[in-house]
Design goal:
single chain, about 280 residues, alpha/beta, 7-stranded mixed sheet, 4-stranded mixed sheet, about 30% helix
Length: about 280
Amino acid sequence: MSDIKNYHDLDADYLSLDKTFVRRTKNIQLIPTAANRKGGKIAYAEWAHVVGIFQTLLHAHLNDTTAPTILDVGCGTGLLAIASQPFVQNTGRYIGIDVDSDAINFCNRHYREGNFEFLHLNTENAFYAPGQQKEQLAWPVVDETADMVTALSVWTHFTPRDAHFYFNEVSRVLKPGGKAIITFFVLDALYFDGVAARTDEAGTFHTLPQNRWIFDQVCRDSGEFFYPTWVDVPEQAIAVTNAGLQKLVQNASLTLLARHLGNWKEVPGLFFQDILVFQK
């Protein structure tokens, strides 16, 4: 605990000094202190790195980079709000939604620009928001008003039921021609080749750190969604097969435009999880 306290103290001092040297990437001034950097990424450098990745993807895939409406599902403490800021800073609009009320309260205090809006979705997720309403709730967003939907490490915490319901929500809120950037753990041929390489002749996994990402437990009697053995609840980490992904896309009437491999599969990748781009 003392190491964490020392890190937080040093981080606060570092940020106050570092921000005086920022010249060309002004939105990283918004990166919060360590106590509020959440979502699996704590280090300041990793937040800045991931902001850069998704800012680049937004620039590449937004149809309108001057005044878009960006809906960020599972916004956490604002990582993609920072990536979105250059595009919405003038007349655009950013809406962040999360089931974690503490994260939403923090965002409303920290991101004070008038075109940022953060909303709490009072629905249950067994890992992130146990005890909230069990009923699935539609996002409080008008049909066909979003130019872009982003979801960083959201579908990796959805059971099949929620994955389908909220993928249909993506389609509902997107404008015709609008796009979505969503991360997944996709169980594709590359993944299964990697699993085979990590087992011995008896079929036992070698004791290696990457075997944390072996999804071998069936989720909710589905043959298309799986979770690893180490989780406390399935919603802690869920992967989907290619067939399951295709059903999500078809049911929501979206088109898969691009795939960027994640380095969780022990190959060079753009990001840790697989990044998929869809269009309505």
